[in-house]
Amino acid sequence: MARDWEDVAAEIAAKRIEDKEARVCAMLGVCEDCAGLPADHLTPRKMLLLEYAANAFVGGGEVMPEDVVQFLWVISPNYSPDSEKAKVFAKKVGGLKYETAVASIRRWLELQLLDVPPAKPSGRISGRLWLAQYVDLVAHQYGWTDEHIMNLPLGRLGQYKNEIVGRENGTGGREPHSAYEDRMKAEWLREKQAEKSHGKS
């Protein structure tokens, strides 16, 4: 039986509150723990590190235990390119429950990327880095250096991007788009359709 729309609407409203809190935290520079461990905001620099390392959380594919350790190390406040420090960290987090850690990382990542929608797969390999477009947009608008922008929280950078694009397109003040709301509404409509189809059979 399909859920009542009131229940779906309540879940969407709760998600809106969570999203608003994530945006405020990004602006304040306050970051929520990830998988029970201290974390720094995801920045363009850290995102590129994870992409370069082909981490499954950002590049897709089956998530392996090493992806969990690598992701948590890159977002750790103690992150360093020093391989010995990375090994010490890996031993420290070796006791984490895999499924719980994966779910926590995915939730944390979704909030970090609220206003930075993932690129749609085109089926071809492009030499263009999507993050360069964000850096170029903000650098052009505010005159900030690329080094400064590369170390901004992506959650903050995405909000700036929305405001810049909205102002230039004359659509400023519009509520941010939520892929989560779209998914929730689509799921509910599928449930209602399946319920109708079942009733006819």
How would you describe what is shown here?
The chain has 201 residues and is mainly alpha-helical. Helices cover 64% and strands 0% of the residues. It contains 10 helices and no strands. Helix 1 runs antiparallel to helix 10 and helix 4 (65-74) crosses helix 6 (98-112). The model has no long low-confidence stretch (mean pLDDT 86).
Count of folded domains:
1
Which of globular, elongated, flat, extended, rod-shaped describes the shape? Answer: globular
Helix count equals: 10
Radius of gyration from CA coordinates: 19 Å
Q: Report the span from N to C terminus.
A: 15 Å
> Which structural class is indicated by helix and strand composition?
mainly alpha
**Number of DSSP-assigned strands:** 0
Largest sheet: none
H-E string:
HHHHHHHHHH
Average per-residue pLDDT, rounded, comes to 86
Beta-strand share of residues: under 5%
Question: Which stretches of 5+ consecutive residues score pLDDT under 50?
Answer: none
Key phrases:
mainly alpha, 10 helices, 64% helix, globular
Write the layout of secondary structure elements.
Layout: H1 5-28, H2 44-52, H3 56-59, H4 65-74, H5 83-92, H6 98-112, H7 130-142, H8 146-150, H9 154-169, H10 179-200
Helix pairs in contact: 1-9, 1-10, 4-6, 7-9
